[in-house]
Amino acid sequence: MIAMNWKEVTGHEKITERIRNMIKARQFPNAVIFSGAEGIGKRKVAEITAMALLCENENAPCGNCDSCRAFIKNSHSDFYLLEPDRTKANPIIKIEQVRELQREVAMMPVMSNSRTVLIDDAEYMNGASQNCLLKTLEEPTGLTKFILITSKMSRLLMTIRSRCMIINFERLSEEEIIKVLEEQNIENAKKISLISNGSLGQAIKLAQNEGLQIREDVLNFLESLIKMNVEDIFSRGKELSSKSKEYFREWIINLQKILRDILITGTKTEKKYYYNRDITERLAVIKENYSDAMIFSMLKETAETERRLNSNMTLQLLMESYFMRMKKETAKEE
To answer: Does residue 109 have a cis bond before it (omega within 30 degrees)?
Structure first.
């Protein structure tokens, strides 16, 4: 971890003010859920909140006390981080991890007056893990504060939600995202902000992982799919298979967003509800080649292919099979 303070948070002024006031008044609840879209800063706010709860001084986090210095060095004895192993094909927080957490929080705090637990991507707890955690939440001691972070609130048990204060984080504005991107000297800040869907994390990911190039490649694919033959399909599959699975996953995510935008193109939907509102005219041209039924079928095939990315199927074979099915969908109404 690096040195952190409230000034480092982008946006969410009302939320951070509320949290600071609760901490100052010693009224921070035993358990809270930070809920909102991915990449909008929930984890950053949660870490600063945890640091502040453990801080020895009134203006928390001060960044200078023994507690803050230990937190910054990731060596605080009273802070516990629980998160899924994101290197796994199917990340999960297992019941064994929750039991280990329970053993830790059962001990008295060492450096601070209480312990703080941060559970990131809490939706990855399975049913057994959530029920195990519930027992701890049902019998709060006051010596442990729990902060759960999730972008998929519906996956958390209602009994978990009912025992936590829920703080909902809104998406960031385009101006807030542009400001951060420009401070980092990232090119095409305005264009990236338009397609980041209010997520700073997504915006930075787009900038670092050729996001605009991937989108352009997807658009070119949709524009040429109608005319592609079998040889073109296999050539396209071979070309993309030279990339990584993560690259293809981003490719698929972009395709899903573009197909969704094409569906609402020509309707009375306001431009602000588009994922790709900077290219609506181009989307309208692409839509001329596809019926709504075709697009729905393509979305279904794309979702299935995204699921198969976690299988042992070779990337080239997966892509070739996917593109052949996509081509088949366009041929149904020719």
So the answer is: no
